[in-house]
């Protein structure tokens, strides 16, 4: 499949949709890290095996017209569905059935009742307060979310460019290349008021404007997929479940600022995400959506992957760029900012995975529609990795301005064993803890800072009444002390001294002077 013009992209979308419509049922088995660790790929293979033994027509991929338009049942490895506490999970379309904690020994019954037939396996569906929820969207965990960035995660084949195209993928790139000029593209990002989701909340449109204004024959687009905060797995899940959205966003950004090459910096500890990215890049190149003369427009753009070695400091954009260059990842003084002198001292814009995942949506739905969601200073949605002492652990996407109480109780299902909520840690090692008095705080970039914490990349660790806050402080200090790159004395020495004091306190040997020393 080679797409050389706009008409061919449209034709590819029509053909792919036709192939998908020939699938009488679609079985999406979660291929995210959590479910894979729980055995979801064994479940995937067992479902296929049993279905084939029963003589059911199985379609594994639409990549090479494998199903030929004949009716059959589509088996797909999707990305993370988000309900990690309940994995391995699978979804059956068009009934929207959602099965939880599936085991290989359940496959025979699933095939017989729900794939060959239209019955529900009651024991595998979610129930709460004696109410059963067979349909995924009706489960309280999902019902109270607004899934924009995560919309395709769990609902498309994560390793199929055709399936991505069928559901509107690369239409935003098409729009930008054929219907908009570079100024219009950057203005659209500015008008959307999208702020960077990597932690700092810097306006994406301002960053794009600054790089576009630089006079340079060479510019770069960099995707920050380092994601080093403890408990954070938002970016990993997007890369695993919807990798083409990131490639499309990077191509749009490259066209807008005048760049022809991009790099995705991703943790080597994310092997599934890296593998899906490699598949997606190869597919996009083969389809003519990356490389030379994209869709016959004369625009060249390609993407390569760079693996991080697990250094937390490389989540900071200047350290990340230094690492991409093949050097030890250490931060650089700013100014100059990467927009002026970034990768190999040329203008570079760096956006994190979640920021980029919003870009295609903005051009599909429009800047005004995007900006209609959220609060005055924080537009759109935010993905959180909710973990800790909460019943429903997993990925949560909510509009900016959603309260902490709604997240923990409506979506998270409350605190296990009836225990009391104590605090929520947000923002990773650079963030803070929000106590019970802050449960009705509306979560966005500015209110979290005002409350004494920060958004960060989106980690949300829930703590209950049994949690020792000194232990929590010690845990994060152990992490930061271990991850310090050692360049600056306040971090290299200061975190070590602070950890020694906290260790002393946890041994029961603390004094009031230790508190003063910590604050100093």
Task: Kindly describe this structure.
With 520 residues, the protein is an alpha/beta fold. The strands form four sheets. It has a five-stranded mixed β-sheet with strand order 2-3-1-4-5, sandwiched between helices. The termini are far apart. It has 21 helices and 16 strands. Strand 4 (90-93) and strand 5 form a beta hairpin. The chain has helices at residues 6-21, 33-37, 40-53, 107-115, 140-143, 161-166, 171-179, 182-192, 204-213, 234-241, 243-257, 271-286, 317-324, 353-365, 367-371, 404-411, 445-450, 469-483, 489-492, 494-506, 512-519, and strands spanning 23-30, 58-59, 72-78, 90-93, 97-99, 126-128, 131-133, 220-225, 261-267, 302-308, 348-352, 381-388, 394-399, 421-426, 432-435, 459-464. 39% of the residues lie in helices and 16% in strands. The model has no long low-confidence stretch (mean pLDDT 93).
Task: Compile the SSE list and pairings.
Blueprint: H1 6-21, E1 23-30, H2 33-37, H3 40-53, E2 58-59, E3 72-78, E4 90-93, E5 97-99, H4 107-115, E6 126-128, E7 131-133, H5 140-143, H6 161-166, H7 171-179, H8 182-192, H9 204-213, E8 220-225, H10 234-241, H11 243-257, E9 261-267, H12 271-286, E10 302-308, H13 317-324, E11 348-352, H14 353-365, H15 367-371, E12 381-388, E13 394-399, H16 404-411, E14 421-426, E15 432-435, H17 445-450, E16 459-464, H18 469-483, H19 489-492, H20 494-506, H21 512-519
Parallel strand pairs: 1-3, 2-3, 8-9, 8-11, 9-10, 12-16
Antiparallel strand pairs: 1-4, 4-5, 6-7, 12-13, 14-15, 14-16
Helix pairs in contact: 3-4, 7-11, 7-14, 8-9, 8-11, 10-12, 11-14, 18-20
